[in-house]
Amino acid sequence: MIPHPETRRVLTPFILPTVVLLPLLAGGLYFVWPLVPGGVQRVLISLVAVIAFAAGNAAYLVWLERKVCAHIQRRIGPKEVGPFGLIQPVVDGIKLMSKQLLIPKGVDKPLFMVAPLLVLVPAIMSFVTIPFSEDLVARNINVGLLMIFAFASVNVLGLLLGGWGSNNKYAVIAAARAVSQNVAYEIPMLITVITMVMVTHTLNLNEIVIQQDGSFWNWYLFRFSASPLMPVAFLIFFICSLAETNRAPFDLGEAESELVAGFHTEYSGMGFGVFFMGEYANIVIGSSLAVILFLGGWQSPVSFLADGFWWFLLKMYFLIFCVMWIRWTYPRTTLWGLLNLSWKVLIPLSLINLLLTSFMVKVWPLLMGAS
Amino acid sequence: MGKENLQSAIVQFAPLDKLLALGRANSLWPMTFGLACCAIEMMAAGVSRFDLARFGAEVFRPSPRQCDVMIVAGTITKKMAPAVETLYDQMPEPKWVIAMGNCAISGGPFVFDGQYGIVEGADKLFPVDVFIPGCPPRPEALIEGILELEEKVTGYRRWPRVEAG
């Protein structure tokens, strides 16, 4: 799509400042950078990289979602704003930021203001421990897995406060649904993670990936020696991460037909935008965790191809694509169906998996040793 | 189009204003809101044959707080009018209104001496930016209306006009 001459004329005044300011900024940074102590340098780079990765992903996953849903519905999707509609997220960002930030009468103002941040900030914090490759990790923490789940539970609080602070009945109902759903699905997810930790003997995400070295049959997804139910564990984890991030078919928290727009009904402009960024950052985190725990992280699936972060990104984006694929294929479940699935199917299955794995890890070697 | 009716800011940043206008024009999110049969045509405009998504305008937001344009698609009865007005008031600035179909323009076929149930046109309730005639208008007409609104926001038309006939 060739831009209209008038569009080019609108954008021209912004080209000169960008072209002049960016090299100036880069040049200034070049001289100042050596003066910054080494530890601070690492922190600054990690901070900028993590925020840029989270924000960029949030913006362009929205574009991808619109494209994927369009093609699933035999449409084309955004195509007029930039090539393949690639400028669409930028334009939407400009629109959202320039929109009136409306704080309705009667809302609990502090809660209303802090709720979107409570959704976004923990999601961004979780990126700190995600190892994109052996060296490409902001901070290699011993309890990385635990930290991510600790932050993931703050997310629910953000949704609840957003719904409660809005002083809107639909928002409160949606928040209550989101909380009951998140509590119900946290249990099978954490039981699955405990199972995984029993197998890996570590909470360090780097080490978990290193243990899956070699070809794809070494991934924990196919580690049948640890538990014959490993693929089931992966499925449970994936379904739970769908439910934790409030994605369809579990998006009861934002069921338009019953609840207007869910817990963010009263949020306009960037308040809503921040909620959305948090949701997409959570999807990225969930998919990354599934990749790290089950699909071998940055390890290449076949031994003759080099390992590297590209494998991690490939697997992660494939899982994210699956999330979108599921969203635009299946209709929304009912609240009862959702809770039944968790309490009657996923929790018993994950408990069986836990027992089986503990048997395989502890008792089986003893029996083998005895005979 | 009534450009002279647009309110202007006290302090002007012309290039920035134009950039914001460009952003707003290309991301017009309509409200999930239909009053009568025109709404069926509005839904048709979103699906595969017409695909409003090409212009970035397919994000039908269910909450008025997140909408930019309200498509009044159908007959406004006197009973519905307060709800429609409330929805308009709940939208944050900047906001636009498209009156879709003859009923939303003037009451359409329901206007006669002594009628008591119909609001004769959406502009009796709030300012309307674009009128789309038809009973109901085809989805192409709605897309044309959205392009017309984009022209009103940015001051120029990006796409060539289609000749009638």
Give the key terms.
heterodimer; A: 371 residues; 12 helices; B: 165 residues; alpha/beta; 5 helices; 3 strands; 32% helix
Characterization of this structure:
- The complex is a heterodimer of chains A (371) and B (165).
- Chain A is mostly helical and 371 residues long.
- In chain A, 68% of the residues lie in helices and 0% in strands.
- Chain A has one domain (104-365).
- Chain A is built from twelve helices and no strands.
- In chain A, helix 3 packs across helix 10 (269-294).
- The termini of chain A are far apart.
- With 165 residues, chain B is an alpha/beta fold.
- Chain B has five helices and three strands, in the order ααβαβαβα.
- Chain B has helices at 14-25, 38-46, 81-90, 102-106, 139-154, and strands at residues 69-73, 96-100, 130-132.
- Chain B has a three-stranded parallel beta sheet.
- The longest helix of chain B is centred in the last third of the chain and has 16 residues, at 139-154.
- Chain B starts with 13 loop residues before the first helix and ends in an 11-residue tail after the last helix.
- The mean pLDDT of chain B is 85.
- The interface between A and B is large, with 42 and 35 residues.
